[in-house]
From TrEMBL:
Protein name: Signal transducer and activator of transcription
Top-level taxonomy: Eukaryota, Metazoa, Chordata, Craniata, Vertebrata
Any one of the GO CC terms: cytosol
CDD domains noted in UniProt: STAT5_CCD (cd16855), STAT5_DBD (cd16849)
Span of domain SH2: 583-684
Coiled coil stretches, renumbered: 131-165
InterPro entries assigned to the protein according to its UniProt record, in alphabetical order: p53-like_TF_DNA-bd_sf, SH2, SH2_dom_sf, STAT, STAT5_CC, STAT5a/5b_DBD, STAT_linker, STAT_N_sf
Sample GO molecular function, one term: DNA binding
Family assignment from sequence similarity: Belongs to the transcription factor STAT family.
Keywords: Activator, Coiled coil, Cytoplasm, DNA-binding, Nucleus, Phosphoprotein, SH2 domain, Transcription, Transcription regulation
Signal peptide (residue range): none
Family annotation (Pfam families): SH2 (PF00017), STAT_alpha (PF01017), STAT_bind (PF02864), STAT_int (PF02865), STAT_linker (PF21354)
Length: 771
């Protein structure tokens, strides 16, 4: 269903949010009448940060205007006449607005579509309870804003009343001074005239002075009452700001961190920005009221506690706005957490209250610096670390830009590059892939006509700096652990040394699904297998096992020259590049060891096979199947092909390789292989472009009863598929390896061998073989 149709069914706060997306910058009528055309364009294909994409944006703008004009021309009747005028006006308006900056139109429409999709998705989410809870929370926040609005309006009315009363008081005070002057002038008059005028003036003076005394007390009470109301407003402001900054914004940052491990996207900042802007507006209004109240006090000093109260209020409101500004200077797009030197990278910094406080009127500059973990700790302790850095970043200065269509003030660092890194003395056996750094972003700007000057800083998520691609997987393990188990408000960048295995399972599962880009995660059986592998344990109940972060990186698996994480990272990489559709289909069991595979297959008919990830090779997958032992009648064995790797699949796909191997009949437990894999087979006409398989020779003892490996080229089954070209030699004992050890250097002349095979009739290649 079209997004716009669903968006029109939104209700309550979601509908209000959707409606707020539109205005003069993009009228809602344009969205309505061109909904199908708008949703059919490839807005995401345009890179907003690349000026060279402007011609694409201009083409879309021209098309949009043409569509509007066409829609206008087709309107008939009385109602159609009015709509025709309105749509024509919108076409002219959009052309005038975006003709010189078409990328802003793309930014605007992308923002609208993203927000609509999010609102529709949230409203139709099956997690109803969570959405109800979220809606309730949003409703409470909005109710608090309404209460703040009413309180601020109330104090504004009181302040105006106070000002009016004080102005009248000053007029009456001036009257009392005039009466006093008249009384003083009576001294120059004859006694008779003085006695005639003096009583009336004295009576009038007494009346005015009595009124001034009463009114002075009233003004003092008004001032105290206003200060108490401001205290109440500031208490509610603090509470609301705590909810938004310490709860909602921190949760967004936590989601952003988990998204670094492959968790769900952290979501947009639009709602948070709208809340922060409401806070900024309310805080600024109250600050101005407090300053006006102070001005009234200075204009008419009346002895009492009000001076101290106003000083306290002014200090409190300044602290509140300072906390708001410094907390809303955030990193919208994090730099890569595994950062390779001499490699371009990007990041985006955003000030959520920048538009509301008019910071963009004098755009501030943001500077990026890389600092160490120790420097980050010192920075948070307010220790002097000025000009300290742990490396040199090129293109590390950027001016913040204001995007009027979205109301965002942000700095886009597009071409940063880490030129060099200065490492600290590492602790003990800590490797370079365990050392954490962070990118410090800092800026300075003023608000309110230089009334307040802010120095703002924010730290990126921890980054691990590498100089070679071979360090990538160990660095990723460090980042995975930090993202998964960091606690809010921690000292940089402390994480627990160990957690329970189920906690690590969640992190590994999220990472796996994200890397493989699959909705099919790791099953309980998969996770038990991984626990057994990580701990070299045979326990089927790893619930109580602790897991140390070091276990992800430095220690090699028993009998191997690689770690658990390197092995698991290789599995993810292979699956992502070559096996994703088969993993999604459930065709790959994957996380099964040799013994498990044998136990599972021996109870199945001959030709049953399964796919499992290799234990002996990083990023390898092998095929295990059950068949007759050719050297012992009546005995069955489980065979294993040499592991396939990325190199193999770049030549020929897994599905085609399974199609080629005719002795593979049923995918475990009992699915015909063509039923599972045929939709991925290369069409027969394309199969003439044959790959060159490598062959190895070995001299095993087939009677040993051990599991047996076979080279990729072996095929004990007769040819049964007319579209399969025979490129395999007859199976011989010399092609089996009972121990699974292969001498890759002992290869045949593949090109000559394949050429010879292709000359033979297909039927004769497999004559006399046993299935």
């Amino acid at each position: 269903m079209a997004v716009w149709i669903q968006a029109q069914q939104l209700q309550g706060d979601a509908l209000h949010q959707m409606q707020s997306l539109y205005g003069q910058h993009f009228p809602i009528e344009v969205r309505h009448y061109l909904s199908q055309w708008i949703e059919g364009q490839l807005w995401d294909a345009i890179d907003l940060e690349n000026p060279q994409e402007e011609f694409k944006a201009k083409r879309l703008l021209d098309c949009l205007i043409q569509e509007l004009q066409n829609k206008a021309e087709h309107q008939v009747g009385e109602d159609g006449f009015l709509l025709k005028i309105k749509l024509g006006h919108y076409a002219s308006q959009l052309k005038s607005t975006y003709d010189r900056c078409p990328l802003e139109l793309v930014r605007c429409i992308k923002h609208i579509l993203y927000t609509e999709q999010r609102l529709v998705r949230e409203s139709s989410s099956p997690v109803g309870g969570m959405m109800d809870s979220m809606s309730q929370k949003y409703q409470q926040i909005n109710q608090a804003f309404e209460e703040l609005r009413l309180l601020t309006q109330d104090t504004e009315n009181d302040l105006r009343k106070l000002q009016h009363n004080q102005e009248y008081f000053i007029i009456q005070y001036q009257e009392s001074l005039r009466i006093q002057a008249q009384l003083s002038s009576l001294a120059t008059l004859p006694p008779a005239d003085r006695q005639l005028r003096e009583p009336a003036l004295l009576s009038k003076r007494a009346t005015v002075e009595a009124w001034l005394t009463r009114e002075a007390n009233t003004l003092q009470k008004y001032r105290l009452d206003l200060a108490e109301k401001h205290q109440k407003t500031l208490q509610l402001l603090r509470k609301q700001q705590t909810i938004i900054l310490d709860d909602e914004l921190i949760q967004w940052k936590r989601r952003q961190q988990l998204a670094g491990n492959g968790g769900p996207p952290e979501g947009g900042l639009d709602i948070l920005q709208s809340w922060c802007e409401k806070l900024a507006e309310t805080i600024w209004q109250n600050r101005q009221q407090i300053r006006r109240a102070e001005h009234l006090r200075q204009q008419l000093p009346i002895p009492g506690p009000i001076e101290e109260l106003l000083n306290e209020l002014n200090s409190t409101i300044t602290d509140i706005i300072s906390a708001l500004v410094t907390s809303t200077f955030i990193i919208e797009k994090q730099p890569p957490q595994v950062l390779k030197t001499q490699t371009k990278f990007a990041a985006t910094v955003r000030l959520l209250v920048g538009g509301k406080l008019n910071v963009h009127m004098n755009p501030p500059q943001v500077k990026a610096t890389i600092i160490s973990e120790q420097q980050a700790k010192a920075l948070l302790k307010n220790e002097n670390t000025r000009n300290d850095s742990s490396g040199e970043i090129l293109n590390n200065n950027c001016v913040m830009e204001y995007h009027q269509t979205t109301g965002t003030l942000s700095a886009h660092f597009r071409n940063m590059s880490l030129k060099r890194i200065k490492r600290s003395d590492r602790r003990g056996a800590e490797s370079v892939t365990e050392e954490k750094f962070t990118i410090l972003f800092e800026s300075q700007f003023s608000v309110g006509g230089n009334e307040l000057v802010f120095q703002v800083k924010t730290l990126s998520l921890p980054v691990v700096v590498i100089v070679h691609g071979s360090q990538d997987n160990n660095a990723t393990a460090t980042v995975l652990w930090d993202n998964a188990f960091a606690e809010p408000g921690r000292v940089p960048f402390l994480v627990p040394d160990k957690v329970l295995w189920p906690q690590l399972c969640d992190a590994i599962n999220i990472k796996y699904k994200a890397e493989v880009q699959s909705n099919r995660g790791l099953s309980e059986e998969n996770l038990v297998f991984l626990a057994q592998k990580a701990f070299s344990s045979s326990s089927n109940n790893p619930e109580g096992l602790p897991e140390h972060d070091d276990d992800l990186v430095p220690e090699s698996l028993p009998g191997r020259n690689f770690t658990f994480w390197q092995w698991f990272d290789g599995v993810m990489e292979l699956t992502k590049k070559h096996l994703k559709p088969h993993w999604n289909d459930g065709a790959i069991l994957g996380f099964v060891n040799k013994q498990q595979a044998q136990d599972m297959l021996m109870s199945k008919p001959n030709g049953t096979f399964l796919l499992r990830f290799s234990d002996s090779e990083i990023g390898g997958i092998t095929i295990a199947w059950v068949a007759e032992n050719p050297n012992k009648a009546g005995e069955r064995m489980v065979w294993n092909l040499m592991p396939y790797t990325t190199k193999d699949f770049s030549i020929r796909s897994l599905a085609d390789r399974i199609s080629d191997l005719n002795h593979l009949l049923f995918l475990y437990p009992d699915r015909p292989k063509d039923e599972v894999f045929s939709k991925y087979y290369t069409p027969p006409l394309c199969k003439r472009t044959l790959c060159l398989y490598r062959f190895t020779t070995a001299n095993p003892d087939p009677t040993s009863g051990n599991q047996t490996y076979m080279d990729h080229g072996a095929s004990p089954a007769p040819v049964s598929h007319p579209h399969t070209y025979g490129i395999y030699p007859p199976m011989s004992d010399s092609m089996l390896d009972a121990d699974g050890d292969f001498d890759l250097d002992d290869t045949m002349d593949v090109a000559r061998h394949v050429e010879e095979l292709l000359r033979r009739p297909v039927e004769s290649q497999w004559g006399g073989q046993q299935s």
